[in-house]
Automatic annotation (TrEMBL):
A GO-annotated cellular component: plasma membrane
GO-annotated biological processes: transmembrane transport
Record-annotated membrane-spanning stretches: none
Name of the protein in its database record: ATP-binding cassette domain-containing protein
Localization of this protein: Cell inner membrane
InterPro entries registered for this protein in UniProt: AAA+_ATPase, ABC_transp_ATP-bind, ABC_transporter-like_ATP-bd, ABC_transporter-like_CS, P-loop_NTPase
SUPFAM superfamilies: P-loop containing nucleoside triphosphate hydrolases
Length: 255
């Protein structure tokens, strides 16, 4: 099975102030590597500050790595490539409500995504919006709603619609299911699994909900202070973690 994305030796550090006159280097990621194939889910787990969100930002080009490389469909990405490939990797934020413009109707938000990233005509965009809303269990009339008119579960579907409308190959879900209550979370998880089966989408799931990880992730990567401690098939990582931190993590979070 060929990989959609390969990450090789990715590292990232930041300069932070120490007092008024000095700065020090904080290592956010150190030599992290993994791969992800179509139709698979990779879970990234670790405590706050482990580098999970930094990794996501590097993958979508929000920030640039200090070293290492990211290969998308075998082609190495650089700064100039992200504008061309931003439709292939899409990011779902933790707070769907805050990620949507409260002053715009959903149809306008989706039109803007298509207008800036495709050459579709207005009529083609209208059809694409209707098809995407239907795919996610929403009605065409929902396009005339403002974000505050939706429930939490519906908002997450809208956030998914904004990402999926560009037909990406990879979705990054950065704690995107954390704020949902268990019943809504189950609905969205089932929807994600259905979409993955239909389209071959690959998911990079950033979460500490280990019950969810074990349920849907094919592979799991454990990060601690920017370092990859365990990586492999989810069943192997859960049943036989190789690092003491990983063993403590599995025991410390109820799943």
């Amino acid at each position: 099975m060929s990989n959609l994305i390969e990450v090789r030796g990715l590292s990232k550090s930041y300069q932070k102030a120490r007092g008024m006159f000095s700065r020090h280097t904080v290592l956010a990621l150190s030599n992290v590597s993994f791969s992800l194939a179509a139709g698979q889910t990779l879970a990234i787990v670790g405590e706050t500050g482990s580098g999970k969100s930094t990794l996501a930002k590097l993958l979508v080009g929000i920030e640039q790595p200090d070293s290492g490389e990211i290969l998308l469909a075998g082609q190495q990405l650089n700064c100039a490539d992200y504008q061309k490939t931003n439709h292939l990797i899409r990011y779902i934020f933790q707070d769907a409500a805050r990620s949507l413009d409260p002053n715009q109707k959903i149809a306008n938000i989706l039109h803007d995504v298509l207008r800036y990233s495709t050459v579709l005509s207005f009529e083609q965009r209208e059809r694409k919006i209707a098809d995407t809303l239907k795919l996610l269990g929403l009605l065409n009339e929902h396009g005339n709603y403002y974000p505050h008119m939706f429930s939490g579960g519906q908002l997450q579907r809208v956030a998914l619609a904004r990402a999926l409308i560009l037909d990406p190959k990879i979705l990054i879900l950065d704690e995107a299911l954390t704020a949902l209550d268990p019943s809504l979370r189950a609905q969205i998880v089932n929807l994600l699994l259905e979409l993955q089966q239909k389209t071959g989408l690959a998911y990079l799931l950033i979460t500490n909900q280990l019950r969810l990880v074990r349920h849907i992730a094919d592979q799991t990567l454990v990060l601690h202070k920017g370092i990859s401690l365990d990586y492999g098939d989810t069943s192997a990582v859960f049943e036989n973690p190789q690092h003491e931190y990983s063993r403590k993590l599995m025991k410390s979070i109820e799943y």
